[in-house]
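Re: fe (ii) ion structure - here you go.
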Amino acid sequence: MKYYKFLDLPQIPDHLDLNPGEMMREFKSMEYIKDGKISMTSDVVAYQATTELQTWIKDNIIPEYKDVSIRFQYGGDDRTTNGVHTDKTRKFVLQYNLQHADGILTYWKEEGYPELRPEVEIRESGYDYSKLTKLDEVFIPNKQWVLIHTKVLHSVENLTGSRINVQISLDRDSFDNQ
Ligand SMILES: [Fe+2]
């Protein structure tokens, strides 16, 4: 797998409780520069997934993981990106969109650096897009499982509203054979 791969896994049943629980982690909006203009990224908040959802995931998707969260990227209006970053606490994320908000997952390479950026900590600063080259981009529909590499710079662009997804943190590609 290079940056991401779609996986043929069961959809989450409609009757499960997908409501967000307690806040787990919060990533505050920050400044970035695009076309010479300073803008703000969306706030991103990770909430605890219900026990009901976690049990279903263990039984139907993957028995072992680091954590499961319901994430809100509060985009829309003038906040059209969640910000270019790598993930600090995981190497991969298995993701399932509940509300895609037209977002496009986009991978980037920063001028003067390799593609793989394990040393970059999440959201330590905003990026200047004039120093970034687009590597790949993909629209991920709702209810489609996708495994995402998180140690290459990435962002979700084109947010027209709040993007909501289930995220399962992993430190290895447990779907190597798919
Ligand atoms: Fe990320």
